[in-house]
Amino acid sequence: LASYERTVEIDPNDDETWYNRGVALGELGRLEEALASYDRAIEIKPDYDSAWYNRGNTLFDLGRLEEALASYEGAIEINPGDDRAWFNRIEVIFKQNNWDKGFKDLDIGLNHFAKGEEFYPGDIAAYLQIIWDSTTDIKVWQSRLQTLVAIYDKHQVVSTVGKGIVAHIPNLMSDLVSDKLARAWLEIWQEIAEDKSELTIALRLLKTAVEYKEKKGDRKILLRLAKEEREILEPLIKKQ
Question: What's the pLDDT tens digit per position in 145-172?
Fold first, then answer.
């Protein structure tokens, strides 16, 4: 950070250094200052798509959702191939409780991006957490999760949902989450994904995590898993 600041003293119009300064400040948790750095980078270079993207991430972390949405849209306008901006934008839309638009744009995004060999499918664990936080109505959970899975399945990338299910496990392990709600979440997933072989391992890990929670950390529950699966799950259940 000190080096970046020295650089912009020498050349106040170095857009890349202002951008990197923003990244460093963001890593330090100094979000307002990071935002100011991205703003300066964009002022110098209005078509700096990465600065627009990181500006959106920073605004999202600050809870300024409308501004975050506008920043992601700015990044997409400059670079229509920016899959991260597209799927992070959907995260904002879900956060705004605009589910119809969010799912519609998710479908559009996957139709466009999932054809490539490598693509960013969105932070599915974050999508799941937003669904979790949005309500305690189990029927609403089920409806939203079914829609999510159906869209990823439609574009033949439902396996990415499995990674999201697993990444979301630490949130279920919190003492603030009741065993009853964790069990309901598991049962919804078992119903939705029972015929999807791509999600078999994720569901087994989720089931084991919920049972481990219900049994108050009985390690015998974990020993039912194969060693490789146990090595995936153990850091997750301890993470919380």
Answer: 999 999 999 999 999 999 999 999 999 9
